[in-house]
Amino acid sequence: MVRLGDRLVSAGVIDAEQLREALRTTARTGERLGEALVREGRCTEAAIAEALARQLGLPMATEADLAAPADGMTTLIDPDFARRRLAVPLRLEDDVLVLAVADPADQELLDELRFATGHPLRPLVATPSALRRALALMGGGGSAGELLALRREVAALRAQLGRLEKVVTGAEGTEDGLDD
After folding, report:
1. What is the DSSP letter of 61?
2. Are residues 75 and 51 in the same domain?
3. pLDDT tier at 180, thresholds 50, 70, 90
4. Which of 2, 7, 16, 179 is 20 to 30 Å from 161 by CA-CA measure?
């Protein structure tokens, strides 16, 4: 199996020297490689999650998955545990619990979840920030500051959507030949 750092290098996300520096950091701090790379600004959470998903042959959780878990999912996992370990239950498929996690290679986490829920698991990969947003929206808690940050993010996304709609509307007007 190709290691995460090697996958990031081969994908051009980081270079070999950045990988060596990050590995030295992880040896010193005990952090996971992805956490160190993101903290140091070497790559994004999304790049780490995508590389991890490819490495493990797992799908990524979609925004739709995270925005609308099936009814009853919030009762399967203790909210404090879900926030602490970044695990979001999404749905049951033939008694298999489909859930989004930041680190699907964490066997201890998966074992705890299997035991706590009584279901076999099918993990999907998601970024830590996407999982935190989903948990806050699910009522999985979070501080008033986190809720305010989410509201600001939604407002910014709505503003961006409005700008994109104007661009698309403007582009549609030029394609019909009226600007010739």
Report:
1. P
2. no
3. very low
4. 179
Closest listed residue to residue 37, CA positions, set 127, 170, 118: 127
Between 68-77, 104-113, 126-135, the lowest mean confidence (pLDDT) is in: 68-77
Ramachandran sector of residue 133 (left: φ over 0; alpha: ψ -120 to 50; beta: rest): alpha
In total, how many domains does the chain have? 3
Global confidence as pTM? 0.70
Q: What is the pLDDT of residues 147-170, one digit of tens each?
A: 556 666 777 787 788 888 888 887
How many alpha carbons lie under 13 Å from residue 178 in its C-beta half-sphere? 7
Q: Alpha-carbon dihedral of residues 112, 113, 114, 117, nearest 10 degrees?
A: 120
Q: What secondary structure letter does DSSP report for 62?
A: P
Query: What is the domain range of residue 88?
Result: 63-137
